[in-house]
Amino acid sequence: MDKYTTTIEKDLIRELKEGSNKAFDKIYQMYSKRLYAYSIQFTKSSGDAEEIVQDVFLKLWMNKENIRQEETLRSLLFIMAKHNLINAYHSKVNHPIYEEYVNNMDFLSEENAYSRLEYDEFVQKLYAAMKKLPLTQQKVITLSRMQQLSNKEVAEELSLSEQTVKNQLSLGLKTLRDLLNKVALLIMLLFINL
User: Fold this and answer.
1) Does residue 99 sit within a domain?
2) Which helix (H) or strand (E) holds 56?
3) Which residues of 50-60 are buried (b: 16+ CB within 10 A; e: fewer)?
4) Rg of the chain in Å (alpha carbons)
5) Which among 84, 83, 26 has a CA at the least distance from the CA of 51?
6) Interacting residues of 10 by C-beta distance below 8 A, sequence separation 6+
7) According to the per-residue pLDDT averaged within each range, which of 47-56, 82-91, 173-182 is highest?
8) Separation CA 17–CA 127 (nearest Å)
9) Sign of CA dihedral 63, 64, 69, 73
10) Residues 121 and 179 occupy one common structural domain
11) What is the DSSP string of 13-39?
């Protein structure tokens, strides 16, 4: 980003914090297409991607007085989009229709078999990568992400402090992302609770 663009965005952020609709519109014009492109990669749905972008900008407007960024909103907006994508993923996975889909996985048609193979391959790579982690990290990730236990429950189960659980989880997930860089996106969406 050049110095001129940074100066303009800096001014827009200041004006946005003061409640300027015009500044908000310009920021929307600067980032909405990029956020949409980012979101559609994961949602594969135009409607869902648009909804995520709208939610990001709604939250931005509602919290404009609390914005700490002074030079650019890029990282803030993309982090907000990432949170929305993760929440959308979790709500889809926890949805009764998805549960029904999972219960009927054995009846996949031949045309969907490729998706199943792709998923199975991912799971194999994930477990192979997990075996390379220290034992404590393996246990923490298994209990936290696969068995959905809270950090407190994991700490009690493994006789560790909650902080140790958080640290081991963070380190383990980072290592997994590094080991599985081709599927880092899936790891992020599946395993990071922000």
Assistant:
1) no
2) helix 46-62
3) bebbebbbeeb
4) 20
5) 84
6) 70, 71, 72
7) 47-56
8) 46
9) positive
10) yes
11) HHHHHTT-HHHHHHHHHHHHHHHHHHH
| Rounded Cα–Cα distance for residues 85 and 189 (Å) | 8
d(CA 94, CA 91): 5
- Which residue is listed with tokens 């990669």? 41
Q: What are phi and psi of 18, to 5 degrees?
A: -85, 0
Q: Which domain holds residue 31?
A: 3-93
In the chain, the amino acid numbered 21 is N
The single-letter code of the amino acid at 177 is: R
What are the pLDDT digits (tens) for 102-125? Answer: 444 444 444 454 455 555 666 677
Tokens of 58: 């709604």
**CA contacts within 13 A on the Cβ side of 94:** 8
Residues 79 and 141 in one domain: no
Tally of domains within the chain: 2
